[in-house]
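Example (one chain per record):
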Amino acid sequence: MRRRYDVLGLAFAIAALVIATIYPAAAAQPAQTQPERGSPVIIDGTHIAALSKVTRQLEKVVPASSRPRLQSPKPIPPLGSTVDFWAWDFATGSFYPVATTLQRLSEQTELYVQAGYPISAETLDGIMHTVDSVIVNREHKAFGHEPDPGIDEIARTVIVLLDIRDAQYYGRGGPLVGGYFWAINEYLQSTIDEWYPNANLKSNEREMILVDLSATTPGSREFYQVVSHEFQHLIHWNYDPDEDDWINEGMSDLAAQLSGFGLPGGHVQAFLDSPNRNVTRATDSPLADYGAYGLFGLFLWERYGADAISNAIVQTPVNGIDGLDAAFAGRNIPDQFAQIVSHWAVANFLDDLDVYGYRAIDIVTQGADGITRYRRPAVTRQTIYPTGPLSTTVATWGADYITFDNLQPGDLVITLTSSISTEFIVNVVSSSTDDFANGTNVLREVSLRSGATTAVTIRGAGSTVRRVALIPVHISQSAEYGTLLYRAAIVARTTPTSPTATPTRTMTPAPTATPTRTMTPAPTATPSPTPTETLPQPPSPSYVVRLNCGGSRYTDGERNIWTADAPYTPGGAGYIGGQTYRVGSAIEGTTDDALYQSERWGMSAYRFDVPNGTYSVTLRFSENYVSQRGLRVFDVLIGGQPVLTNFDVFAAAGGKYRAYDRSFTVTVRDGRLLISFVARKSEPSIKAIAVQAIGP
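Predicted structure:
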């Protein structure tokens, strides 16, 4: 026998929860005259905690696969007929009947209006045309379909326009509920009574959405935003009834944008004014939360595949972050959630389509209108150098914005340290203008693991670089907040006196000490030179150092010994800065997998103190972290001379977990061989380095 749920107590708990959440004072009787409402905050009622709790429990005990439907379609009354529906009182936490009139009917929609609320025939006709021809058609393409037929065996959606009872309805302060979809209407009343006897829960047994008549003006842009928003909830429920609220709400705000009515402007600006928040969590600022959800949905849609990705997100039954990753994997998109959130944080500040930005809206420093142009997030400005150490605390999946202004000529060096048990992706944006607009913006992404320290050098500060932004994104879920320490200094540039390096494109092993026989013409007095054999001086084999970067001592297949990674000390060889990382994946293109499985990343250089002479330098790479070209780009300099510029290991090797080597010939004249790494996007990484003398 199936267990019956005694939810009389649950019903009282629901009422108390709603009252405490939306209507802090005790519910009063309805005012005799409708109060002046001013310009209150408008929210969606779909995911009010009480409503979600009931339907999530119903979905667990009566899953979609076994949900019963009516045995025959409900009869449709004639136009002008009076029909009663059950509605939810958000202030008292109870159901109440609403008398409505069927005003319009089409193949897709039934439009009911609460009795006593006159709407002109022209407005009603406009609503029906917009719903059927614009909203329904556009959302079918972007997200999928509502249940058709659903519980009522009718291929129509019911829209009820009514004065929703909320805190404002009773003349008290608080937000206005603009509308809601409640999945309880997707269950038979008999099913609800069976599982929740004595709870006084009501179902209309129809596919329906309810829209408030007081929050917006029927037929207005804001009205259609609400209708679009709630209709997406109905579609989403058809595919993934227990989806996480933040994704569901994000798709609903996106629905308003795609239907041509824009994102709810108050939502967007509220978020941009307070962006340091977890995009996957609700807070006590619902407008800012909804702004985050909607803006994130728009970013996903614009950047990752338009309707194809929104369909995948809605129709993937996995929830939350895992659901997004599954939707992306199904579309062969390699980006993971942490990377996506980091890119999104940059777009919310920079709004530069050459880096990350938006097409449908503009984020500006001035001229915001709250419709398509929004004010950029506020920043913490640093203007005196050196500065720090300073700190910023960032919510998980949130971002902060710091700028370095008043730059003097030199190199700006920013040192970053993450707190223990937290991880960051720190975006460093160098701009050729003072407002990050109408110029060139260069982005570097720095992955900062728990407790790690790294330094980022921005060359050309005060000249080609006018301003720098630091955008840390906290990506660790082990702590609700993470702390990033940072300090900055401007270092005067000096002309390097270190050795030059001549790059070669060959990937052959360095020469051995065995002499190579060459034929050279010997000068004589005869008209035709006579070839003679000469034996050049053999290269000195006295200096050979092989470093397993980020790893331990290793002997390769040719019995060469690779020394364990170590920091540089005078007279020796080793790294300057950086962190280590290791994978266990097989590496293509080599039989020495272990040599490419460990790495040092984020270092500024490797230094070798060597006798003057000529050396072969071999750098060994494999991209073992990012899964797409363009996500890690850096420069390599030897002796101050660039040998690899805008180097992308993933692109050069042809994919992830593939060995890729580059060799260069270097002449050292001052006893120092310095291999420098300069980040352009994310942090540089290296797997192994071999330095071998080949001549005086």
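Caption: Residues 605 and 676 are 4 Å apart (CA to CA).
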